[in-house]
Design a protein that fits this description.
Keywords: Cobalt, Hydrolase, Metal-binding, Metalloprotease, Protease, Zinc. With about 475 residues, the protein is of the alpha+beta class. Helices cover about 30% and strands about 30% of the residues. The protein is built from twelve helices and 23 strands. The strands form five sheets. Strands 9, 11, 12, 13, 14, 16, 17, 18 and 19 form a nine-stranded antiparallel sheet that branches. A six-stranded mixed sheet has the order 1-2-6-3-7-21, covered by helices on one side. A hairpin with a 7-residue loop joins strand 16 and strand 17.
């Protein structure tokens, strides 16, 4: 499989991507990929260092004739989102990503691909090892833990970098240039409950919601995709109100920045209601699938009879939690009044885990406006607190305020038009890029973000467009050769 990927053009990028994807690199477990990057820099004979939190910095002097150009920071993150289909046997902690080519796209076998942000990393590696690309002095910044807290960007100290321009290679549409992004905050609701003995004469079911598209909770939140946790809660609420359904456990969703694709629950219903419950469940499942027939054509909702659990959730807590999840907003909260088609504020109910006397619900709220972010976070906190949960807000990070007058933006727009004979879209995105955080310690650095076309990020459907990577590489080389002179 690796040979097939390495044969793609541009080989300089794809061979580095193949090398990188052979290294397990989960967020918060980046030791092996840090070691890999340090060895890469040392092998090239370039100054290579790691900072206190684990970010890797590799410095390359300007090529002859480019010494008077502004120094550039090229930045991408080392970690990747780990998601896989339920029927895929894969250990992200020990295995490299298994890739293949289909219909002009590079994909992975049942897992996320790691093109986010591995292709950015691979392109920077290709620049570092090149001998024929004109460029100014470069500081290659490879950050850690972007996907689950941005602790790499947060931990990068001011004064460590000397670059005046930052090229962030972490966006996912090759005709877009990003000049702003949303900030975010993690919301976690927890509580304990008393487990009760399962009533006698019940029928137990395993309810499953699966086959959803999932995706990036920032870039895809406006698409109207189904959230498996909200779908499951809707089914459970209906079963409770009509048939006294009792919950034994729920396990739905995964990472905060991934729209939940799957959820599973174990429940019981009085056996006298077996036929009526099955009929009502199938009716509601059919209605939900009809609602999402275009957005989620592969949705599967099932209720299968199973062995009865020994314990179920305390009734009062069950009712409070299901009502809280029903009330909690998921999806777009409001659109930006300043930039057309930009989501301003949103929330993703990412993870619902109930069982063994414990409830844990995890959300990620995003916004390009700090006050709106806190407003929605407080709304969610209120809903969960009313159900008896303790709610914490953590991991808050700022957005990146757009600068339409950016000097490097002018360079990128001009070069794009010259190379591709069309005008790029200048946008702000609803994802959380590291630029806003980096800008806190480097407020004078002129920042821009761009990248190749990647679809389905944060899901097993993640794929990278091969032709777009060629375009991205050509564009990157042209940008580096046209960096403005020092003032």
């Amino acid at each position: 499989m690796s040979a097939e990927i390495r044969a793609l053009e541009p080989k300089a990028v794809w061979k580095n991507f193949a090398d990188l994807n052979a290294v397990p690199r989960p967020s918060k477990k980046e030791e092996r990929v840090i070691e890999f990057m340090v060895a890469f820099g040392n092998k090239l004979g370039l100054e290579t260092l790691t900072d206190e939190v684990g970010n890797v910095i590799i410095k390359k002097p300007a090529t002859p004739g480019m010494e008077n150009r502004k120094p550039v920071v090229m930045q991408s993150h080392l970690d990747m989102v780990h998601q896989k289909n339920n029927d895929t046997e894969f250990d992200f902690d020990t295995q490299g990503i298994e890739m293949f080519v289909k219909d002009g796209w590079v994909r992975a076998k049942g897992t996320t691909l790691g093109a986010d942000n591995g292709l950015g990393v691979a392109a920077i590696m290709a620049v570092l090892e090149s001998n024929d690309i004109p460029h100014p002095a470069i500081e290659a910044l490879f950050t850690i833990d972007e996907e689950t807290g941005m602790t790499g960007a947060k931990g990068l100290k001011g004064g460590l970098l000397k670059g005046e321009i930052l090229l962030n290679l972490d966006t996912e549409e090759d005709d877009e240039i990003d000049i702003g992004c949303a900030g975010g905050v993690d919301i976690t609701a927890v509580r304990s409950y008393r487990e009760e003995d399962t009533p006698e004469k019940v029928t137990a079911y395993t309810i499953t919601v699966k086959g959803l598209q999932g995706g990036h909770s920032g870039m895809d939140i406006h698409r109207g995709l189904a959230n498996a946790n909200k779908i499951m809660n809707r089914l459970l609420m209906d079963g409770f109100e009509n048939f006294g359904l009792r919950i034994a456990e729920i396990d739905g969703g995964g990472l905060r920045n991934a729209i939940p694709r799957e959820s599973r629950a174990t429940v019981v219903v009085d056996e006298i209601h077996h036929d009526a419950f099955a009929f009502e469940f199938n009716q509601l499942a059919a209605a939900i699938k009809k609602e999402y027939k275009n957005a989620e054509p592969n949705m599967v909702i099932t209720a299968r009879v199973t062995e009865a659990p020994a314990k179920v959730m305390e009734l009062g807590v069950q009712e409070g939690i299901t009502r809280a999840v029903y009330a909690a907003l998921n999806g777009v909260y409001c659109m930006s009044p300043d930039m057309e088609d930009l989501v301003q504020t949103s929330n993703n109910i990412a993870r619902v885990k109930i069982g063994g006397g414990h409830v844990k619900i995890q959300c990620l709220t995003r916004s390009s406006v700090e006050s709106s972010k806190i407003d929605l976070a407080n709304s969610l906190r209120a809903a969960f607190e009313l159900s008896g949960c303790e709610v914490s807000l953590s991991g808050s990070y700022p957005g990146w305020t757009p600068n339409p007058k950016s000097a490097i933006l002018k360079v990128l727009k001009k070069k794009y038009e010259e190379l591709f004979n069309e005008t790029p879209e200048v946008v702000a995105c609803h994802a959380g890029l590291e630029c806003g955080i980096l800008g806190q310690n480097y407020p004078d650095m002129d920042m821009i973000s761009y990248g190749p076309t990647i679809k389905g990020a944060h899901s097993p459907d993640e794929r990278a467009n091969i032709a777009s990577v060629e375009k991205f590489w050509k564009y990157t080389k042209e940008i580096l050769g046209n960096i403005p002179e020092k003032e």
